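Table 4 source record.
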Amino acid sequence: MASVLITGANRGIGRAIATEFAGRGHRVIATARDPRTLDDLDVNQRLALDVTDDESVTAAVAAAGDVDIVVSNSGAIFYAAVEATPLAELQRLFNLNTVGALRVAQAVLPQMRARRSGKLMFMSSVLGRVVLPPSAAYAASKWALEALVEGLTIEVKPFGIQAALLEPATVSSGALDDVTTYTLPDDPYSAILRSGGPRAGVITPQQVAAEVADAAQMPQLPLRIPVGDAARALLTARHAAPADVPFILAG
């Protein structure tokens, strides 16, 4: 039985992951900014954790005790053409999606190094490998996360610690039901914005959770783990496409 800490467990993918690990008999520490949103989860601990706040992360990790696996799931998205992207919102997105994930990893790494074991699993996306407007800002936050985690994987290997990037495509988590969109006056990019990003091959949060838990139980984590058939197909197509031109999703 492993001790598993999950960020952003209050809804969608994070909630499904918490339920899946608990159902497999693991000790689950579910976290969210407001722990009251976790009251109905059948887990071992429910803790307040805001990945954008140093003190919150430090307190939650201390309360959690020994942690074998971290699933860093907290994140957000907005739609905008690059020209229309509010820079303050871009910084906020990076602070949550990228810096927040790193903040949690830094908090648990000392105990994992001391034990010479541990697994860090970061919720990335197929958009950590490709860019599909109007999600360039979100993709940028995930591309940055992918670079940090790839470096981290090399650095922590001598300490017996593993890190992996989880890369689902579209998930029916509700996160894309009402996405904040930023536009320009008389928006010249309206045709692109209407696409709203890829929606084919949608999988459920429960399907994501099952694949995440399966991966966590593997003796050796791959660096990148496409989650779901649509993700695997899209990333295979990206790999086969020329690298010197933008990848355009057919259809």
